Amino acid sequence: MKIDDPRQLLHSAMQHFHAGQLEQADFLCRTALKGHNSADGWHLLGMIALRSGRIEEAASCLKKCTKRQPDNPAALCSLGIAYKALGRLSEAATAFEQAARADPRSSQILYNLGNARTASGEFKAAITAYRQALTLDPSRPEYHTNLIFALNFDPAAGPEDHQRERLSYGDMQRAQTAPAPAAESRPYDPERRLRVGYVSAHFRHQAATYAFAPVIINHDPTAFDVVCYSDTAIEDDLTRRLRGHVKTWRATATLSDAELIALIRADDIDILVDLVGHMVGNRLEVFARKPAPVQVTGWGEPTGTGLTTMDYLLADPVLVPPDMRFRLREEVIDLPCFLSFWTPEPLPDPGPLPALAAGHVTFGSFNRPEKLSDPVLRLWAAMLRALPNARLVLKSSSFGNAAHQQRIRSVFQREGIKSSRLTILGDTDRDAHMLAYRTVDVALDPFPHGGGMTTLDAIAMGIPVITCPGPTISSRLAAACVTAVGLPDWVAPNHDDYVALAARMTTDLDGLARLRGSLRDRLMRSSVGDTRSYAHAVEAAYRDMWRRCCARAQDSGLEVS
């Protein structure tokens, strides 16, 4: 190779890039660009920077490429990925749309477009992109799972739409996946100690983990051996804390599905529990192979998977009423609530009712902006018009992205609400996040996707939560929580009553102040906050599942100890 031949240098840089030798690839690519300022060179350098985690540099390089080659779909797609990683969601969507026009047969580009639209809360556009991607390639499970997740946020999607996609996903998995062979030597003794495996990418600080962590922490070691299969890429102190409570901890983020299935089978897991559902980072393709005789989904996204190999869904009668269960493939097992309340550190005191000092009522919602649909924002605007002195506080880590703030402020502006009545707060650590609840008198649950742990956080800080459940499971999270705490009066049957309930609550500030002082204790004494009794209820459910499995094994002629 001639050291001064840019084409040969670029070719060699590409070889090093594909071999994962990024430093050598970077050096050769930069040398090539000195000799010839080419679009291909900037494209490769952008890819090297992207894979190396230098996202700003990647976007800059890829932009230089697309200026020279405006119809290069691969470069445009990579540019969109870089923009999305930087939180520049509108620019990301534009890049993906340009890439899709340049290569309309690429399902991957449309999938990335759907992801960008999902991140910006534009769920109708996201759903359209995912459906287009699936039309081009119906075999990609990630296209299906992201579509299913996005439907939870679409106000126009009903329960039939939700479950139709789940069943379609399950049918696709059944057609593509052969179940793993049964473990013939397993002792089907209904009363023996059980090996329970938990599969999650979220064994770290985040809301979903707080829902299931107390179960793992409070398992009875004389009756259950617990194995955690952790796809958690970034570990923290909560990861280490959970690891200390289980017999076996498996780091599985780098394992293929086949490798994870083999590991689960080697561990002789009796009951395998999915903690993610259709959220990003799921391992549902592992569950489609049925590596354990009993398989359960719960806590993470408890709306059903659609898999024929998933036996049970952990829920409660409010989250999934009996008349909704016929749509699910899983059998619903009722817990005291579909989640429990636990915090890794002591909570701050709720403080006094802020309205007493402020002279006005402050509503609040600390749900992420993707849940704040235009219909719920318009309803909240109507509430603020009916209560002209009231204020609204919104808080989420995602509000660091200006696009989310702009969308929400524009809705309130169109509805005639002055910007001075709206406060939007961004990311803080958990202590500061919980302290921010001291500024809120009454919390508002969004729709069509309500809040789960966010609802319980508010209650723990002495704040009543107004909710209006709809016909979908994802719209019923808060209703399940407040009912489990013994406060069903906070559940409004319709949107008019939602507004009326808010107005009625705010006319009795002394009553709100008394409620603020008692709610945390009420939560902690309930079946949701009593984490030991909650864990025992889960264990009783597992035991019943296993006894039923043993009975089926006996009926099929397998040896039962």
Q: How much strand content do the residues show?
A: 5-15%
CATH topology of the largest domain: Rossmann fold
How would you sum up the global shape? globular
Rg over CA atoms: 26 Å
Order of strands across the main sheet: 3-2-1-4-5-6-7
CATH class of the largest domain, please? Answer: Alpha Beta
Counting DSSP H or I runs of 4 or more residues, the number of helices is 23
Terminal CA distance reads 70 Å
Helix content: 40-55%
Strand count: 12
Mean pLDDT: 95
Structural class: alpha/beta
Spans with pLDDT under 50 lasting ≥5 residues? none
Domain count, please report it: 3
CATH hierarchy: architecture of the largest domain: 3-Layer(aba) Sandwich
Task: Sketch the major β-sheet.
Answer: 7 strands, parallel
Write the layout of secondary structure elements.
Elements: H1 6-18, H2 22-35, H3 39-51, H4 55-68, H5 73-85, H6 89-102, H7 107-119, H8 123-136, H9 141-151, H10 159-176, E1 194-200, H11 207-217, E2 224-230, H12 237-243, E3 248-251, H13 257-266, E4 271-274, H14 284-287, E5 294-297, E6 312-315, E7 331-334, H15 354-358, E8 362-365, H16 374-386, E9 391-395, H17 402-414, E10 422-425, H18 430-435, E11 442-444, H19 453-460, E12 465-466, H20 477-484, H21 495-505, H22 509-525, H23 531-555
Parallel strand pairs: 1-2, 1-4, 2-3, 4-5, 5-6, 6-7, 8-9, 8-11, 9-10, 11-12
